Amino acid sequence: VNIAYNNDNSPVKLNLGMGVYRTEEGKPLVLNVVRRAEQLLANDLIRVKEYLSITGLTDFNKMSATLIFGEKRYKYHKSTFIVGNSPVIKENRVTTVQCLSGSGLLRVGAEFLARHYEQKTIYIPQPTYGLHPVIFSTVGLSMKTYRYYDPTGHALNIQGLPEDLDSAPSGSIFLLHACAHNPTGVGPTAEHWEQIRLLIRSKRLLPFFDSAYQGYATGSLDADAVSVRMFAADGGESVVAQSYSKNMGLYGERVGAISFVCKTTNVARRVESQLKLIIRPMYSNPPIHGASIVAAILSDRTLYNEWIIELKAMADRIISMRQQLFDALHARGTPGNWSHILKHVGMFTYSGLNPKQVGSMTKEYHIYMPEDGRINMAGLCAKTIPHLTDAIHVAVAKFSN
């Protein structure tokens, strides 16, 4: 899709396939707080460029665990003001290591499970992020799918998902999108998550969370971590991969952390030891710059608060794009019920467009997206919504589902 878009010389071409944020002017965004953190790092003459340890930057790992599992904050100024109050952190039952952003996190986690976990079958949602099956099959895990998306209502398959959880063999691994499901935009409610948690724990399944959008989905770091924290609070084991590509805009820095929540401190230490044996021959140790940016922002109250404001602004703009597109389709009288655009959460939404409709939009309107009709809502702006609305209206009329 991206290659075809780049080869198109049309002045009205529109790329809604690539999973990156764009401003209202259609430009890439570097957060102001990231630039400030980089300037602080550049001015710190004590910093050196030595290799990190195999597990990465220690402060980054501690703060990443706190961010995803729960936190409390000092009310007064302090250079490092985030202190964990999550049970898994207080009881030292979690081990967190820095890895190479989303795909790298998943690869390390998958390798660990393939080597050391009792079961070699992982269930992935249908549909899911395109690299998920590639990564897990590469390490030799057997893959099955569970029902997640209901295309008739553009919603969560609330009947099929619990049935597939209940029928899975004990000990199986279940891959879960922590929030803002890619590619559908469909997310479980808190009540759904509790139902999922109870089933997973009763069947002794292992939850493996892919958290790529914390704070970027709803604008709230806490709301977007509800699923992970539910599982962390019940004393059971879990795996959590968290990336800073989207919520800090650090795409090319390739920075993220993977956490293993264990039942005891001793197991957590042993897991970390085995992770070192996996990482060392794979890439030796992770890069320092991106992790230093994250640590600088998370450890300074002023920078952290600035990040929260910018993060919410990104999330709010995506929500606004959903509303504007829905309103435009409704005003145009485009056939169909487009309310799911408003109900979906995060960067992506399954539009409901079929491959013929998508192909027609590309050919006639120079709009690029995957054949499944997934739209990157962050790739839209007020100026491009009328163009997209025209294309959808014509395509729906020309090729009915």
Describe the structure.
- With 401 residues, the protein is α/β, with parallel strands linked by helices.
- The protein contains 15 helices and 15 strands.
- A hairpin with a 4-residue loop joins strand 7 (149-150) and strand 8.
- How are the strands ordered across the major sheet? 4-12-11-10-9-5-6
Shape: globular
* Number of E-type strands: 15
Tally of contiguous helical segments: 15
Q: How does the helix and strand content classify structurally?
A: alpha/beta
Order of helices and strands: HEHHEEHEHEHEEEHEHEHEEHHHHEHEEH
Strand content: 5-15%
Distance between the termini: 22 Å
Family: Belongs to the class-I pyridoxal-phosphate-dependent aminotransferase family.
Subunit structure: Homodimer.
Protein name: Aspartate aminotransferase
EC number: 2.6.1.1
Fold blueprint:
Layout: H1 2-6, E1 14-15, H2 32-43, H3 58-69, E2 72-73, E3 82-83, H4 87-90, E4 94-99, H5 101-116, E5 121-126, H6 131-138, E6 142-147, E7 149-150, E8 155-156, H7 160-167, E9 173-177, H8 190-202, E10 206-211, H9 226-232, E11 238-243, E12 256-261, H10 265-283, H11 289-299, H12 301-332, H13 340-343, E13 348-350, H14 355-365, E14 367-368, E15 374-376, H15 385-398
Parallel strand pairs: 1-14, 5-6, 5-9, 9-10, 10-11
Antiparallel strand pairs: 2-3, 4-12, 7-8, 11-12, 13-15
Helix pairs in contact: 2-11, 2-12, 3-11, 5-6, 7-8, 8-9, 11-12, 12-15, 14-15
